[in-house]
Amino acid sequence: MITLYTFEQIEKVTTISEILKDELKIYFREIAEGMVGDSWQGYNLSEVGPILVIEMTDTIDILDEYGLVQGNKTVPVILPEFAIRIKVEVEEMLRIIWVCNDSFGLSVYYPVGQFGEEFDNWVKEYLID
């Protein structure tokens, strides 16, 4: 899993495609501009929560770092606020938004199919199109 807090971190990631990197930059800007306006490039997401990118070697257990699955092996026990379909090249991804402890949010970029069919069917309940 890639954890991103700053625009600079997004620019430096070398393990994702340029198209996904561009998507992350646009999304980061949306969040940061909403928080600080024109000085968005220097913003750090630490006060609102990181952007996470699920990598091909990750399992659902990686979400437990934020207490989302709490030992469940198929779906999180914490419900997301919503999910949005994102097309990155030929890959379908979801941006899943979780609010944790009413104190910070997680924006998770998830490649559809990564955590299995049960997870995919579960998260469809939260899709907004």
The helix count comes to 3
| Main structural class | alpha+beta
Give the spatial strand order of the biggest sheet. Answer: 1-2-5-4-3
| Largest sheet features | 5 strands, mixed
Query: What oligomerization state is this entry in?
Result: single chain
Helix percent reads 25-40%
Beta-strand content? 15-25%
Task: Please write the string of helix (H) and strand (E) elements.
Answer: EHHEEEEH
Rg (C-alpha, Å): 14 Å
Average pLDDT, all residues:
92
Shape: globular
Cα distance spanning the termini: 26 Å
Stretches where pLDDT falls below 50 for ≥5 residues? none
Number of strands: 5
Please indicate the count of domains.
1
Give a written overview of the molecule.
- The chain is α+β, with helices and mostly antiparallel strands.
- The chain has one domain (2-124).
- Helix content is 26%, strand content 24%.
- The protein contains three helices and five strands; from the N terminus they run βααββββα.
- The protein has helices at residues 7-12, 18-36, 117-124; strands at residues 2-4, 51-53, 82-88, 91-100, 104-111.
- Strands 1-2-5-4-3 form a five-stranded mixed sheet.
- Strand 4 (91-100) and strand 5 (104-111) form a beta hairpin.
- It starts with a strand and ends in a 5-residue tail after the last helix.
- The model has no long low-confidence stretch (mean pLDDT 92).
